[in-house]
Specification:
single chain, 146 residues, 2 helices, 10 strands
Length: 146
């Protein structure tokens, strides 16, 4: 059975909390942990996608992944996103988690035909991929990597 788990940053202390998500009337987002609800910032909510990186760290929507192919340093950066990847038709029937380019080098590689499906990068024997941060705590990672 797939583990369904969410995370979000608490409004009261800006700390991450992990658990079940409830969206209340009025648009308040709450993460429930052991029967207790914590109000979180809606823009920080991300779902665990059911996959782990090479170090067994759980991957969430909004995480930043660094990867390398053969002989490269970790200079390819991706943002975990949900929607249509470049390899699927642009409709709601073909949506899934995919990797969005987080820097110009990665964007150029995807435009030239590099795969951006998350399963390839997390589980291929040709690549190494790890979570290096997320778009909320580490925006500096979303820039060109030398």
């Amino acid at each position: 059975m797939r583990e369904i788990k969410f995370r979000g940053k608490r409004i009261d202390n800006n700390e991450w909390i992990y658990g079940s998500l409830v969206i209340e009337e009025g648009g308040h987002y709450r993460i429930i942990v052991k029967c207790r609800g914590y109000t979180v910032k809606p823009e920080t909510v991300g779902q665990y996608i059911g996959l782990k990186d090479e170090y067994e760290k759980k991957v969430y929507d909004g995480d930043i992944l660094a990867s390398r192919g053969r002989g490269e340093f970790y200079n390819l950066r991706f943002i975990v996103n949900f929607g249509n990847s470049a390899h699927f038709p642009k409709d709601k029937e073909h949506q899934a988690y995919y990797l969005e380019a987080a820097n110009e080098k990665t964007k150029m590689q995807i435009e030239n035909g590099m795969r951006n499906d998350i399963y390839f990068w997390l589980y291929s024997s040709e690549t190494e991929c790890r979570v290096v941060g997320n778009i909320h705590d580490n925006p500096e990672l979303i820039k060109e990597v030398e």
